[in-house]
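Q: What would this chain look like folded?
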Amino acid sequence: MSRTRFEAASDGVFAIAITLLVLGLTVPAATSGGDLIQKLLALWPNALAYALSFAVIGIMWNNHQMLFRSVGVLDRTTWLLNLVLLGITAFIPFATAVLGAYHGERAANVLYGFTLVAASIVYNGLLHYLIGHRAFRPFVTAEALRQTVFHYRFGLGVYSVATICAFFVPIVSFWLYWAITLYYLFPRGVDADIPEAATGSR
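A: My prediction, written as structure tokens:
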């Protein structure tokens, strides 16, 4: 399949999804300057949810790029799995808006958690499909793949625990979402830097 169109379509969805997050921050109706300040300060849950999801989608975007720069073969199944991932990504702005508006509610935290768990499941499924079909380029080592598998599974585990916590203690789940986001800031496996010479031929 065309790598250029595959990557362009994926980048487009990630870019639109991360842009749509700002729609969760609505301009408050105020009657005076003091009233406006109070209402802007009251938007802190929305702003915090925005920052969290901006980081989540940004990291997903980066991981997607790092993963597929290492893939040499793109087939229809890869495209379908990627399409499911993009569909979930496009849903994140809605889940974020709900989380910001109802940050202390169980349902809002559970919805957000289910969204991230779904994305993580698809990421793991995509990784295992690519490994099983030997789709990675020769420069990708077995050790790098093992690290990546652990990296993705660990994320899925934490997202799952956070979602379960959302049923009982929503605030704990919210900070677990932040914790796993910070964890993914550090590259591992195929996400790590590799010599430019290895990726010179596409």
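The helical segments are 3-20, 33-41, 44-69, 76-101, 106-132, 142-168, 170-183.
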